[in-house]
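Propose amino acids for all 250 sites.
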């Protein structure tokens, strides 16, 4: 049964766009990394890439709030990309409806692999209390329990580069997951990729926005002569998050 929340304001009017000819194709203007909404996870396990974990009713509302926020910006969105997992495809659906787009699936923006998939990470039966799992915790800076942070950042930035260069003008939306989006944030900001997972600023159905700027130094984060620069972060579903019982993977 859907959980209660304040009445949603009227949705913005759909943007009407004229299609661009191939001769008019220009690079995208902004790229928005959208996290999926809350997942239905009554067992409270770390689901990672496991199949069958779709959005809860609250998560569907969150995804709609993200779509409404993007539409209210009055910016044309000409490309939509999503991770192939169920929760991200479902979160992309209201965005696709808002901008008359089909989501292209890209494995490079998927949730990282994790050795604790299917296990509970808190409570008396937490996998962290099982001595058989301690060998996976020896290096939290890589991390030793899953895909290295550097690998996540590289594949995400490559996917962003390709989506940006292929867009027919306008903006690009990529629906992904918390850790991949956070790795882009830290790499673009020039910070160490190792971090405390409890301090990630990437809420459910949040939107982190980037633009291209001409590269100015040796530490460029792309190979195109331009750098990614973060220009905005919004949490349109913040009012719903107080009711969330599942906040995603580690």
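Proposal:
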């Amino acid at each position: 049964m859907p959980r209660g929340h304040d009445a949603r304001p009227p949705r913005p009017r759909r943007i009407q766009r004229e299609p661009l000819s191939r001769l008019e194709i220009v690079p995208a203007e902004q790229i928005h990394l959208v996290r999926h909404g809350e997942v239905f996870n009554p067992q409270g396990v770390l689901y990672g890439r496991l199949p069958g974990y779709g959005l809860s009713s609250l998560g569907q509302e969150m995804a709609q709030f993200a779509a409404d926020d993007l539409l209210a910006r009055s910016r044309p969105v000409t490309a939509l990309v999503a991770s192939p997992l169920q929760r991200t495809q479902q979160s992309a659906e209201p965005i696709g409806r808002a901008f008359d787009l089909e989501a292209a699936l890209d494995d490079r923006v998927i949730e990282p692999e994790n050795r604790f998939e299917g296990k509970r990470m808190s409570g008396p039966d937490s996998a962290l209390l099982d001595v058989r799992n301690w060998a996976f915790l020896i290096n939290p800076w890589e991390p030793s329990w899953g895909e290295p942070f550097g690998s996540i950042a590289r594949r995400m930035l490559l996917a962003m580069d390709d989506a940006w260069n292929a867009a027919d003008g306008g903006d690009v939306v990529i629906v992904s997951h918390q850790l991949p989006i956070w790795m882009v944030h830290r790499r673009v900001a020039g910070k160490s990729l190792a971090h405390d997972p409890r301090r990630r600023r990437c809420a459910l159905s949040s939107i982190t926005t980037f633009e291209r700027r001409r590269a100015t130094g040796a530490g460029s984060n792309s190979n195109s002569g331009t750098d990614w620069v973060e220009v905005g972060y919004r949490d349109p579903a913040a009012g719903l998050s107080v009711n969330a019982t599942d906040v995603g993977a580690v």
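The first helix runs from residue 57 to 72. Residues 26-113+147-241 form a domain with the Rossmann fold fold (CATH 3.40.50.1240).
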